[in-house]
From TrEMBL:
Presence of the UniProt keyword Membrane in the record: yes
Transmembrane portions of the chain: 12-33, 64-82, 88-104, 116-138, 144-166, 173-194
Keyword vocabulary terms for this entry: Membrane, Transmembrane, Transmembrane helix
Lineage start: Bacteria, Bacillati, Bacillota, Bacilli, Bacillales
Superkingdom of the organism of origin: Bacteria
Protein name, entry field: Nucleoside transporter/FeoB GTPase Gate domain-containing protein
Native source organism of the sequence: Bacillus safensis
Domain Nucleoside transporter/FeoB GTPase Gate: 17-102
Pfam families associated with the record: Gate (PF07670)
Length: 215
């Protein structure tokens, strides 16, 4: 039992560290650029007309682009820096679950002999269709999503110097990683218990016929 806890915590901390190395710096960078420089404003104004189709604001383009060009965790980090309504966060989460890290994953797919054009078409189509459906079906979710102790609007009111700007960006980054750890570490402990008790092996046997049908 003690060894299971130890291995689970070790796996959870390792995973948190791996994800945190991406989320932490991206959160700081996007937070500073978004609130205190015109760079994000230029990007938002350029992409805004295209985002309305998905029920997203111009700001939502930032995590969408980062998630697709870099990886899913960069997209998550960007979401943490923005004051978006719950509906937009949910749409972004669904879109990025289907379509993320396109450059690297397409390269890997090409190396194993898969048709990149087909993979891109399927992933992008699923992301687009799911976003449009959610936008048309879900009429609520207009309340702002909360990620930490301060909302983006509150942070903008407080930040009056570069010291405060950097401090608030660091706060967002730290809170983002801590919230991630609160999810990842317990999850990895549970998975470790399932592995040691043999439940994962049993589950894989139950699911193997279904997986064979998908091959």
């Amino acid at each position: 039992m003690g060894e299971t806890w130890k291995n689970g915590l070790k796996a959870g901390l390792s995973t948190t560290w791996t994800l945190g190395k991406v989320i932490f710096p991206v959160t700081i960078l996007v937070s500073i650029l978004q609130q205190h420089t015109p760079v994000m404003g230029w990007i938002i104004q350029f992409i805004r007309p295209f985002m309305g189709v998905f029920g997203l604001s111009g700001e939502a383009a930032i995590p969408l682009v980062l998630g697709n060009m870099l990886n899913l965790y960069a997209g998550i980090a960007a979401i943490l820096t923005l004051e978006l309504p719950v509906k937009e966060v949910f749409i972004l989460a669904v879109m990025l679950s289907f379509c993320h890290n396109l450059i690297i994953e397409s390269t890997v797919a090409a190396k194993v002999g898969l048709r990149v054009s087909v993979i891109l078409l399927v992933r992008i189509s699923l992301a687009v269709i799911s976003a449009i459906v959610i936008h048309l079906v879900w009429q609520g979710g207009e309340e702002p999503a909360q990620y930490g102790l301060l909302t983006a609007a509150q942070a903008a009111d407080v930040a009056s110097s570069w010291y405060m700007i950097v401090l608030l960006a660091l706060q967002k980054a730290v809170l983002g990683v801590l919230q991630l750890a609160c999810i990842v570490i317990p999850l990895m402990v549970i998975i470790q218990f399932m592995r040691d008790l043999g439940w994962l092996h049993t589950l894989s046997k139950w699911l193997s016929p279904l997986l064979e049908c998908l091959e």
